[in-house]
Amino acid sequence: MFKRIFTILLLVSYACNTDADFDDETIGCSSGLTANATFAQVKDLFQGELLQIQEDLIIEGYVVSSDRDGNFFSVLHFQDAPENPAEGFQLQLDIRENHLLYPVGSKIYIKLKGLYLGQRRDVFQLGGTFAAFGTTSVGRLPALKAPEHLFVSCDTPVEIQARLIALDGLQTSGTNTLVQLDGVEVIAEEMGLPFAEVREETERTLKDCDGNTIAILNSGFSDFQSEVLPMGNGTITGVLLRENEDFFIAIRSLEDITFNAERCEELVTEFTSNQIFISELADPNNNADARFVELYNSGTEALDLNGWTLVRYTNDNTEPSSTEDLSGLVIGASQALLIVANGSVFEEVYGFPPDLEAGTNSPADSNGDDNLELVDPFGTVIDVFGVIGEDGTGTDHEFEDGRANRNLGIQEGNPVYTFSEWEVFNDTGEAGTTNLPQNAPEDFTPGSRN
Q1: What phi-psi label fits residue 6: left (phi over 0), alpha (psi between -120 and 50 degrees) or beta?
Q2: How far is residue 8's CA from residue 17's CA, in Å, rounded to a whole number?
Q3: Cα–Cα distance, 202 to 235 (Å, whole number)
Q4: Helix (H) or strand (E) segment spanning residue 142
Q5: Helix, strand or coil for residue 23?
Q6: φ and ψ of 420, to 5 deg
Q7: What does the pLDDT look like over 408-420, one tens digit per residue?
Q8: How large is the average pLDDT for residues 262-291?
Q9: What is the pLDDT of residue 26?
Q10: How far is Cα 29 from Cα 183, in angstroms, rounded to an integer?
Q11: What is the dihedral of CA 192, 196, 202, 203, to 10 degrees?
Q12: In the chain, how many H helices and how many E strands?
């Protein structure tokens, strides 16, 4: 602990002392350095492998991170302008309490010669080196080496203008810059939790009123670790971080959060309706690859099928053999929706693309002796074809080499199979069905109720 405090005090004295006995480079306060490279030019030096920079390059930037409250550790984030930055960078730095040396808004110069440039999870980093398990990567720049590379301008620190961004418009160029999100809130499932678990880096989740999300990254060693996540909705300011395609935001302190507005109204994305039902099943006699299941919405409004599933019970099985998630599909009012086994064959045969290709052995790929259930997001069976646990062969729900077509008078689903609601064609004619194999495309009407 004594060594740590001594090192910090030594560096602080270097940064703040303006006595004539110290030149600018020694004290880390410089008015004579000039940048001769941009962030983009430095990043272009990287060719896929760890690089020690040999050129006498200098970049300048403005500090945006702060480890004052412990949410940042041994890293300095800086951007190329105090407002509307083009890019950001991060420097791995083995100096604790570095906010005392490099406060937010400080203009800094970095002499790059001798530093290492690399990428970790698609994000550029500067620093020293770190070797482990036979691999060398960018590591922390030792504290005693920092004065050789990192200099604070003698200019007064400026106010950094956080760039306002939207969760549906995140861009990689914003990585390591200070950003602001408006109209966000902690998701309901995490309300009442602390910012972080003790001594563990913890991700919590923010969302906007359109359902877009981003993780807020919190250190388990931060001063606000045990504070409860805020209620309400509002503004958060922080450094935009990234790992490959995943974005995060990290605050400097609780002062970066202002959640005083009302929370978003809960988005209801899961609905039920008995006006969605199975209207046609196809197992064409002449082309097994042209099989399909048609659903129909007899209602007057379109319905989002988020959470709905179509379930197949093969032969006499009482456990599902395949389940198709219909989330992401919307079925229009008085419209049909087509789920098929083979999308390219379906389009070739019937002349238009399906709504969903479910694939081989899916609920859309029945050979006519299987049973199907249409299940809503809440687990309720809305409609059924066949009798679960009964092989369809020789029954009134066999449509092998044929077709099962819902009678036009039926306008809602039925969780109990009722033969009188259907016209069933097959190659046997058993149990009141019609012995008349059906060929595609002429004997089928996918997309319309005929």
Answers
A1: alpha
A2: 14
A3: 20
A4: strand 141-142
A5: coil
A6: -65, -15
A7: 999 999 999 999 9
A8: 93
A9: 37
A10: 40
A11: 40
A12: 5, 31
Q: 276-435 adopts what CATH topology?
A: Immunoglobulin-like (2.60.40)
User: Who's near 283: CB < 8 A, 6+ residues apart?
Assistant: 291, 366, 367, 368, 399, 400, 401, 402, 403
CB atoms within 10 A of CB 132: 8
Cβ proximity of 375 and 309 under 8 Å: yes
- Residue 410, Cα to own-chain centre: how many angstroms? 41
Q: What share of the chain is helix, strand, coil (3-state, %, to 5)?
A: 15, 35, 50
| Pick from 180, 222, 172: nearest CA to 199 | 222
Q: Tell me the per-residue pLDDT of 242-271, one tens digit each, with 9 for 90 and over.
A: 999 999 999 999 999 999 999 998 767 789
User: What is the DSSP-derived secondary structure letter of residue 229?
Assistant: P
Could you tell me which residues are beta bridge partners of residue 142? 94
CATH 2.60.40.1260 in the chain, residue ranges: 276-435
Q: If you search the block for the tokens 């479910």, which residue do you land on?
A: 358
* 67 close to 142: Cβ distance less than 8 angstroms: no
**What is the CATH topology of the domain spanning 2-153?**
OB fold (Dihydrolipoamide Acetyltransferase, E2P) (2.40.50)
Segment 38-75, tens digit of pLDDT: 999 999 999 999 999 999 999 999 999 999 999 999 99
Residue ranges of alpha helices (H) inside 17-140 are 24-27, 39-43
- Per the prediction, the chain carries an average pLDDT of 92
Distance CA(135)–CA(213), nearest Å, equals 34
For the segment(s) 163-261, the CATH number from 3.30.479.30, 2.40.50.140, 2.40.480.10, 3.90.1200.10 is 2.40.50.140
- The torsion angles phi and psi of 143, rounded to 5 degrees, stand at -55, -40
Q: 214 — phi, psi (to 5°)?
A: -150, 150
Using CA atoms, how far residue 255 sits from 286, 320, 397, in Å, is 70, 53, 66
